[in-house]
Amino acid sequence: MTTTLVMAVSLVVLALLFYTVAVWGELVQRTLHGWHVAAFWSGLLCDVAGTWLMFEVAGRVHWNFHTFIGGVGIVIMCVHAVTATFIYLRGNGEARRRFARYGIAAWGAWSIAFASGVVRP
């Protein structure tokens, strides 16, 4: 395994850790905090960087289910991070409490993308 591939996999695993801790932490705490928002953005940045490195290793984009669902996952993470930022900065207490429901759905969708990369031959 090349160093670049190890870095790519490590970044995507870090994305999983950041995103999981943030989403489930928000659910347990029942409100959106600043550290959740920071972890959402950290997960997104790690995922984008890891994905970019994987494309570098592959030399080209191989269009398949994982590529498609991975792209969808990144878009979902991006929308989630942007929305979390706006709600944290401008939302009321009720919006902060209700946002966790969307986080679980976003995490579930992103987890499918993550798992589809793990089980690929």
Report on the biggest sheet.
none
Main CATH class: Mainly Alpha
What is the helix tally? 4
Overall number of domains: 1
β-strand number: 0
Euclidean distance between termini CA atoms: 15 Å
The CATH architecture can be named as Up-down Bundle
Element order: H for helix, E for strand: HHHH
CATH topology label: Four Helix Bundle (Hemerythrin (Met), subunit A)
Radius of gyration: 15 Å
Mean pLDDT: 90
Low-pLDDT regions: none
Shape: elongated
Strand content: under 5%
Instruction: Work out the helicity level.
Output: over 70%
What structural keywords apply?
single chain, 121 residues, mainly alpha, Four Helix Bundle (Hemerythrin (Met), subunit A)
General description of the model:
This protein is mainly alpha-helical and 121 residues long. The chain has one domain: Up-down Bundle (Four Helix Bundle (Hemerythrin (Met), subunit A)), CATH 1.20.120. It contains four helices and no strands. Helix 1 (3-29) runs antiparallel to helix 2, helix 1 (3-29) packs antiparallel against helix 4 and helix 2 (34-58) packs antiparallel against helix 3. The radius of gyration is 15 Å and the shape is elongated. The relative contact order is 0.17.
